[in-house]
Amino acid sequence: MRLTLVTETFAPQVNGVSRTLGQLVQHLERSGDTVQVIHPDYGQAAAQSHHHLVKSWSLPFYREVSVPLPPFGKVHRAIAAFEPDLIHVATEATLGLSTLRFAQRRQIPVVSSFHTNFDQYCDHYRLGWAKGIAWRYLRWFHNRTLETYVPSNATIADLQARGFERLRLWPRGVDGTLFRPDRPGRDRVRQALGFAPDDLVIGHVSRLAAEKNVLHLAEALRAVGEARPIVKFLFVGDGPARPDLEALMGPNARFVGYQGGEDLADHYAAADLFAFASLTETFGNVVLEALASGLPVVAIRAGGVGEIVRTGETGILVEPEAPPSQMTHALLGLIDNPELRREMAEAARDYALNQTWPAIMGRLRDRYLALTSQAIPVPSA
């Protein structure tokens, strides 16, 4: 099979979508498929010969976001020369729209995936007036593809209520051999960050931005630190909210920026608990990585996270409308109960080990093959 993957985020960008798409490409190539990846130019050479880089610019107020710059004639010519059996459009902005229209003109089968909670993003960036327009466009876009792959049942239900069609579950997996509690670099990381052997460390991994609800998290964690001074905090990630968080959290917090691969896994293992307050996750890759690392998770019951964390078994879920003090209370309960933490850590690890990338990507590949083996007309505009 020859597949073209079109995305506006890919490695070396660090986020859940880019990591998921990287896993997809690896799985397809191991299965003998040829994959063309079209993504923004991040100032690095293309990873492979079939990768096509698109000129882009970074938003001045959010450097982690790269916007592809039209026109996209070179993209269309690259796709035509590659002659894919199927196109997967992973993002819906200008590059994705241009590719969708090109696929329709050429009658190339095209599928899509949905990754972002636009309601919450609009609320955080004071764009509530644009919600109606955004949802009408997204519904139009995805309903013009053969299938749309969605990471959680909660998101599927929400999209179906909005009129989206042909939705299929595409959850996320985790590498349990990489993310595990007995990482060899655990003690090295703790020592380098100045954590004492008896310190209890609460970890957090995400983009540090308003849409991740990080100020809510900071308020909850500050109260934990005031109540239990022995507790330390580890923030992995970066973003526009980092300066504010550093000022709020004080000397007991460590901010280490983005980490990847073995280093990221070591930083998960350096923590004892994981706290996550985002309301915008259609899945929540970092939560699954934390569970694989043997970390009980305290999070907000929203989106896909509510389907990953089993409250009372692998962590504690707090309701979305609850104040930060509820998250503080849940964390303190686990801090003061080492035996419960140990039981949850084991259950978290056991759950994560059943969520493997090969099985999840294999099911998606089966859908690709089913679609390319049928003469299914491409939905028209």
How many structural units, i.e. domains? 2
Query: Counting H and I runs of at least 4 residues, what is the number of helices?
Result: 15
Which CATH first-tier class of the largest domain would you pick?
Alpha Beta
CATH-derived topology of the largest domain: Rossmann fold
Strand percentage, roughly? 15-25%
Cα distance spanning the termini: 26 Å
- Largest sheet geometry: 7 strands, parallel
Radius of gyration: 21 Å
Q: On the 0-100 scale, what is the average pLDDT?
A: 92
Report the CATH superfamily of the largest domain: Glycogen Phosphorylase B
Structural class: alpha/beta
- pLDDT < 50 stretches: none
Let me know the number of strands: 15
Shape verdict: elongated
Helix content: 40-55%
CATH architecture of the largest domain: 3-Layer(aba) Sandwich
The ordered string of helix (H) and strand (E) elements is EHEEEEHEHEHHEHEHEHEHEHEHEHEHHH
* Strand order in the largest sheet: 3-2-1-6-7-8-9
